[in-house]
Amino acid sequence: xxxxxxxxKYLQQVRARGxxxxxLDELRQRTSLSYRxxxxxxxxxxxxxxxxxxxxxxxxxxxxxxxxxxxxPVYQYIGHxxxxxxxxxxxxxxxxxxxxxxxxQKVMVDYIxxxxxxxxxxxxxxxxxxxxxxxxxxxEGIIQKKSRVxxxxxxxxxxxxxxxxxxxxRFGLNHITTVLQELHEVMKASPLKKIALLNNNxxxxxxxxxxxxxxxxxxxxxxxxxxxxENQKLSYIPLSPVKKRVGTYDTKWKIIxxxxxxxxx
Length: 265
Prior knowledge:
Layout: H1 3-16, E1 21-23, H2 24-31, H3 35-47, E2 51-55, E3 58-61, H4 78-84, E4 89-91, H5 93-99, E5 110-115, E6 122-123, E7 128-134, E8 142-147, E9 150-155, H6 157-166, H7 168-171, H8 173-183, H9 189-199, H10 202-215, H11 219-229, E10 237-238, E11 248-250, E12 255-257
Parallel strand pairs: 5-7, 10-12
Antiparallel strand pairs: 1-3, 2-3, 4-5, 6-7, 8-9, 11-12
Helix pairs in contact: 5-6, 6-8, 6-10, 9-11, 10-11
């Protein structure tokens, strides 16, 4: 049996198990072929659009329905990819918001939250994965959603809201507020308070409460957050951390309204 047939047989076994991905190490262990032989035949399979490379040493199998895409959706391989990197993860930010039904625009990048140090971003023609690193992941806010290959880790709507506010410089307040106008519909007060407590960022509690109260119909959510801070001696913080601390003052949330929010919806 030549190398190409041996490799294709292994990939057929992978497909039969309902998996979309494999690693170079797995392939070498299962086929007992030389590194050079494996690489040559992987190059051939890529040229025939039978497989695609996501990152060094990690590949996906292009099932017929995905051949035209040149890749497969991230949900079909992200768990295997992060396991191969020995990294905890969850799909977060705009990608998580979209999975929760809060995306009025198509998300062009897949955002993956993981622990420091983060892997290098993947920015190819067909795959765009941006890795956001944290010192510690809030496991309380990670939920599991079913995909075609099993379960994937996704930030809860409540954790997604706080993560978005951590990334104001990346996404901007207008975009974040637009997402929250839809995301708040699947947020709940009790887990929101729990995440707020664990997140330990009073400024973002103030910002989120202000946005929920003034730009969404999530008054109950805003009230839950306000109960957490109403007896604290809060300092005034700017609504936008990237602009000067000049503007009107919201005395309830202790917010310096230094920018005008103009949601897209």
